Amino acid sequence: MQVSEKFYEFMSERTWQLTEKWYESLDKSDSSGVYSSTDPKVIQTLKRQNHEFHERFCVLFKDIGQDALCHFAQWIEEIAKDEEHLQTPTHYILREFFRTQDQYLEILQEFNRQHGSEFPPERIESFRELIIKTFGLVISKFAEENYEYAQRRLKAQQEMIRELSSPVILIDKYTGVLPLIGDIDTGRARYILENTLAECVDKNVEHLFIDLSGVIMVDTMVAQQLFQIIESLNLIGVKSSISGIRPEIAQTAIQLGISFENISVTSTLERALSQQR
Q1: What residue ranges define each of the domains in the chain, with the CATH number in brackets?
Q2: Which residues contact 168 (CB under 8 A, 6 or more apart)?
Q3: What angle, rounded to 10 degrees, do the helices at 3-12 and 121-165 form?
Q4: Which residues, including other chains, have CB under 8 Å from residue 217's CB and lie 6 or more apart?
């Protein structure tokens, strides 16, 4: 029997033992993340994922020379987008990769003690190099995939926050209110413009009250975009009224040469709504 086949069998017989030993020695005092979970379902999934890693790794010694990254691609994708792992600090995950690598190196030493005399030393050394090289490739690819999924999730959360932070609220069949709160940067201002126009069309709004009393600070470019919303609404047949303009925003608008001549402006939203009635 060739040394690679013998080592493959040697490792395959110990995969569940590796998983149980790994979990038993796991530092479960982490402040957050999958490794500190006490949920039986999470623990069961974690063990399954760890064991599947061992099964995939063992096969590398059965078929020396195969593409390790291709072999681990599905496993890496599952772990990288797994919600429990996404909530786990990356340095905790890397720690467990290296602990698993140490397990493999220990098994290789055990194999060498039992069967080293049967095979050339350079073959045993080549296995050590393969273990270290494969872990390096898997860790690097995991970090890349994990970052991409984390960025996608962050982008989705930001989109949701933007949508919730600029809602057009109907107060009767054809009248809506757009209450804006917090700082508005260029990105958010652009989103408000696009979202407001779309919502007014979808909800058949004919008169929109834009309340700026909760907006603390805007820069020159953002102020310009806010007033572009009013111009754009006018183009689609929606009348606009503004309330709660702070002195700083008013000064910025005047400096930009923005005219309030054809815009209904009141100090408070309450007053604007009462005038409309």
Answers
A1: 3-161 (1.10.490), 169-276 (3.30.750.24)
A2: 176, 177, 178, 195, 196, 199, 200, 203, 205, 208
A3: 50
A4: 183, 248
Q: With 0.70 as the threshold, say if the pTM is over it.
A: no
Q: How far apart are CA 160 and CA 164, in angstroms?
A: 6
Q: Is the pLDDT of residue 160 over 80?
A: no
Q: How far apart are CA 182 and CA 101, in angstroms?
A: 48
* pLDDT per position as a tens digit, 27-41: 889 888 999 999 999
Whole-number pLDDT of residue 132: 95
* pLDDT interval class at 1 (50, 70, 90): low
Collect all residues with Cβ–Cβ distance below 8 Å to 14 and sequence separation of at least 6: 107
pLDDT value at 246 more than 90: no
